[in-house]
Design a protein that fits this description.
With 361 residues, the chain is an alpha/beta fold. Helix content is 43%, strand content 13%. The protein has a single domain, classed as 7-stranded beta/alpha barrel. A hairpin with a 4-residue loop joins β6 (195-199) and β7 (204-209). InterPro entries: Branching_enz_MT3115-like, Glyco_hydro/deAcase_b/a-brl, Glyco_hydro_57_N.
Length: 361
């Protein structure tokens, strides 16, 4: 059995705001329509902020999928905030506001929770259980790399560094790509099936999202050199009871990956080639594992540094720490601090902080 999850966030750090309509047209509508039309069940992780931006046509598609039992809506933080970087009051506010939007617009109360960027700390499960959540998605690679919990003593090395270099265009891109493919295939040996129980402030059930599995699917669906749907299916053929894809809907039909655009048809072709039953993530069996997960994210080094190390990010995090009210949500949006944020995304957060301060003073 395999599962799918699509992540939707219209505050995407690298997508201009004037492109939002095109993202909906090129990715949201065709992908949702295709999966519902083919009766493929999937989890939909979409921020409350994004839901409020969607036109009625798309909200109608989502409701149709929910009513037919094909879409399993997850909770998340309302404005795609990195939760371990917030005060506990603001973590709770983000969780609560997202649930309120989904209850209002979709008439569902999610039981599964997807932390933005899979950014996690051991207190989060307690807050989720207090808010009515039963299950959290986590980064599978971070789980297996949590045997040592102090990265100052033992840093985490990326599992496929040459593929990351190839994506960034560093060095000999094609050579790095070839070496990266070998590293990626080797990393699949770390993948284990099913859910786990997380040891945390309050223990909680967790569903691993495997970045390496995501990457194989994307390279295969995009028909990258030496990859294709059948090749990807062969690589993933021994895996069972895992989430086959658990990342951005924007990569399907709208946003190219290293100049290769993945279509929804080629995406579906990958799991058709696997010939395995697709079920909602909540139906994955439990592995029997009980594990500790370190404070982490799904960044290659499993740290939170992408969202805090840069001087602009550090300033945003410091200034937004004590904000309250509506302005705080936009100030906390992770995509002002993202991988390579556009100036307009970063300015949205700085502007929200300034306006909140002016209103207060």
């Amino acid at each position: 059995m395999l599962a799918l999850l699509l992540h939707g966030n219209l505050q995407y750090a690298e997508i201009p705001k004037n492109e939002v309509g095109r993202v909906i047209e090129k990715a949201y509508v065709p992908v949702l329509s295709a999966l519902i039309g083919k009766e493929v069940p999937f989890a939909l992780n979409i921020t409350g902020f994004t839901l409020e931006l969607l036109p009625g046509e798309v909200l109608g598609l989502i409701r149709e999928g929910i009513e037919s039992g094909l879409i399993e809506v997850t909770g998340t933080s309302y404005s795609h905030a990195i939760l371990p970087l917030l005060s506990l009051d603001r973590v709770e506010a983000q969780i609560r506001r997202d649930r309120e939007v989904k209850e209002n617009l979709l008439e569902v109360s999610p039981r599964l929770f997807f932390p933005p960027e899979l950014a996690y700390d051991p207190i989060l499960p307690a807050m989720l259980k207090d808010s009515g959540y039963e299950t959290v998605f986590v980064d599978g690679e971070a789980l297996v790399l949590s045997n040592h919990i102090n990265r100052a003593i033992k840093p985490v090395k990326p599992l496929y560094p040459h593929l990351i270099k190839a994506q960034r265009g560093e060095g000999n891109r094609y050579l790095n790509y070839l070496l990266g493919l070998r590293e990626l295939k080797k990393s699949l040996k770390l993948v284990f099936p099913g859910k786990v129980t997380l040891r945390a402030v309050k223990d909680i059930e967790a569903i691993p999202i495997w970045v390496n599995v995501n990457t194989v699917v994307m390279l295969s669906a995009g028909r990258f050199p030496l990859m294709g749907p059948k090749k990807g299916a062969k690589w993933l053929g021994n895996l069972d009871d895992v989430v086959l894809y658990g990342t951005d809907i924007e990569f399907l039909g709208y946003r190219p990956l290293a100049d290769y655009l993945i279509t929804v048809d080629s995406f579906i072709e990958v799991f058709d080639a696997l010939g395995r039953e697709i079920r909602p993530p909540s139906e994955l069996p439990h592995s029997g594992k009980r594990l500790y997960l370190r404070t982490s994210s799904w960044a290659p080094d499993k740290s939170l540094e992408v969202w805090r190390l840069d001087e602009g990010n550090a300033r945003l995090n410091a200034l937004s720490w004590n904000l309250r009210g509506e302005k705080a949500f936009l100030a906390e949006n992770s995509d002002a601090r993202g991988w390579e944020p556009l100036p307009e995304r970063r300015l949205d957060a700085f502007r929200a902080i300034y306006e909140a301060w002016r209103e207060k003073s």
